[in-house]
């Protein structure tokens, strides 16, 4: 059974792997045997992350890249393929959020969220998808959110981007099959730098604890099994899906 979830010999690219969920995704894939190419903008944080992965016995490399830079992506993808031989798994994880009501949101703040959370996964899936199709193997895992399933005040751009990412995933699944699968992993609330404002909000904490079946915030470790399912041979017949891992948040009307 462990063979089904093994990534031995595979090459995985994880965006936003310098901290938060992306760093734990990188650890998970490395522990399953993959060589993990870690992408983010801040070189020092990225190198520290890669050092940590290597110290734990994993194979990892750092690529400093701003995923909103189309020309930089066009150069980076062939370079990664040349260095590592191929890309078997792409985890489109990097994301940003902007908190303000839609009526108070400047166009540039809207665009920054859409560029990072929706257009960048499109650019990367397009470049890497062509390569995966030519090799007749691939796993693309787009990190969406419960905000791709429901709406919420003050995060309009993020909600729009994550709903869009789930739609893009379904179309990519239709276009890249049968050998390349494309799915979303849609987490609930997990403590990271992205949601410090909510961690400090007592009313939000109470809501989360009473409204989820799990009764707590999620941890990065809660996402590991779902990621491995979608990134490995175990997920060969799963495509076009959004796997929601949220402790029951979006299934229960409290
Ligand atoms: N935390 C949650 O509760 C939660 C819930 C649902 C979904 N998610 C999703 O999970 C993903 C990761 O979130 P997180 O909580 O781990 O966030 P985080 O702690 O803020 O980490 C974000 C990562 O993305 C990188 N990044 C941001 N903009 C980038 C860009 N333009 N180019 C390259 N890298 C970039 C950051 O590094 P640099 O700043 O150095 O570039 C960092 O490594 C996001 O897509 C988020 O929407 C999170």
TrEMBL record:
It comes from the Bacteria. It holds the Pfam family adh_short_C2. SMART domains: PKS_KR (SM00822). GO terms for molecular function: oxidoreductase activity, acting on the CH-OH group of donors, NAD or NADP as acceptor. Residues 10-193 form the Ketoreductase domain. Belongs to the short-chain dehydrogenases/reductases (SDR) family. PANTHER family: SHORT-CHAIN DEHYDROGENASES/REDUCTASES FAMILY MEMBER (PTHR42760). This is SDR family oxidoreductase. The lineage of its organism: Bacteria, Pseudomonadati, Pseudomonadota, Alphaproteobacteria, Hyphomicrobiales.
